[in-house]
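Issue: copy button drops trailing tokens. Both records pasted manually instead:
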Amino acid sequence: MTNISNQSVLHEFRQESCLDVRKLAALHGVDARNETLCRAILDLERSGKIRRIRGKGRNTSFVLATFET
């Protein structure tokens, strides 16, 4: 299992333009309901770095909203 942080989640979004929660969890080697992953996603969404485009729960899809490095 990898260390889950806001930066590790952003890294995955920089590799793929659109990810859902299940795919993001699989890339990190955790369950889609992992508290640390959910917290990182919520933090990034609140700060405007990722944007929700469709779905609810584990099927929610997000895209990268900024292009900063």
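Record 2 (pasted manually too):
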Amino acid sequence: MRLTLRIPQSESETFPLVLSLARSSPKFQTETEGRTPAYLAIFPDLSQSFDLVERLIGAAAEIPDARVSIDERPVEGLTKFLSALRCYRESLAELDPQAYCARQAAKIGDAGSCPDRACVSHCQFICTRCLQVVREIGAPSIRSQLKAIAIHAEVEWCPNLRLP
């Protein structure tokens, strides 16, 4: 998974910290096109830099117009993305990451009074949203609906995500 963070020059108090962290990324570039310079922190393999990415995105969230993309797809919700990233990271410490995901989703489903039917997703970030899935004739496929929900939840990039 490739993550890119684009940081425009800013007067924000956090900008010096963000720029310092960005310079520690595996690839760092400066963009000088346009009126305002911008800096790119590129992580060709996100799994190699979890700590730095978490710190960098957390700090960059306060900079106007800072943008993150994962595998070329723009991330719209940095908070949602960071939550999903932390969950993925925690799953890597498990012998069975899929079972970990199912347990996390079950906790959410139990707390959210999930209806008594087969779960269509074993991801905590999709779990309660799966109630939005339309199962009527003529509706888009369950898979395409879940993919849209996963994108909105900022979790479609997760290697553990399995959609029916």
